Amino acid sequence: MNWDDLRHFLAAARAGQILGAARRMGVSQSTLNRRISALEADLGTRLFERSTSGSALTEAGSRLLKNAERMEAEALRIRAGLAGPDTPLTGTVRIGAPDGFGVAFLAGRIGTFAARHPQLTVQIVPAARNFSLSRREADVAVTVGRPSKGRLRAKKLTDYTLGLYASADYLDRMSTPRTRDDLRNHTLIGYVDDLIFAPQLDFAVDLPVKWQSRIEVSGATGQYEVARAGAGIGILHRFMAEDDPALVQVLPEIVLTRSYWAVWHESHHASRRVRAVVDFLDEAVRDARSCF
């Protein structure tokens, strides 16, 4: 069994489609197809059911995936054991994060990490969604709350707080709410309910008031911009809103607390790239603890 064929199989299994896997590996679609066909011929069984919508694993493919991931983890462990502490990090590492953290916090600091590892390509994917670490949509994901399922490892980064904010212009036009009941007379900004990707983001559950959004945006950065533009009152991250002179906190007694975690697949526990990212994230939030 050829290990290179297995690597191509892993990429296709995680991507769910040949074209996407080929792009991620930097090879042609025909090369990836040839590698998988060679592996299927070697094993004497079909590993994928191919269709126009993608490639689904067969029962044999699902069994092979588990074994291949163990082999990959062992290969990573061997490589990490042979590499000295001064061996430069190379390749690509992808960090998935909620859009608020990824754009407003991490993007402005990732240059420090890149400068420390000049031979490493760093990708940030800031998106209001969950990332599948088993399918390698990210090597490290920053999550809101600790995941409870999957073969994952996690490290808590920090707690963070949210409050109610509006622009000074909006409050001049509509008046500043003095009591929680006053919010009924204001335009409220929140998430699109059916696009909330983590239960911890359903802020209305923990608010001491009834929150009926009239403007709904699926991401934290979008909500921030809507509030900043004077459209209403939003539940915004303190690290995004507190130092913005265009925004004013209202009803400051209303505070919500959530937590960020760094999460990675257990098969990457020996990866020096993953370890370096997790250590950097921990360092970055620790240095900026007061802003959260």
UniProtKB/TrEMBL annotation:
GO terms for biological process: DNA-templated transcription. Keywords: DNA-binding, Transcription, Transcription regulation. InterPro entries: LysR-type_TF_proteobact-type, LysR_HTH_N, LysR_subst-bd, WH-like_DNA-bd_sf, WH_DNA-bd_sf. Residues 1-58 form the HTH lysR-type domain. The keyword DNA-binding applies. It comes from the Bacteria. It holds the Pfam family LysR_substrate. GO terms for molecular function: DNA-binding transcription factor activity; sequence-specific DNA binding. The keyword Cell inner membrane does not apply. Belongs to the LysR transcriptional regulatory family. This is LysR family transcriptional regulator. It comes from Roseitalea porphyridii.
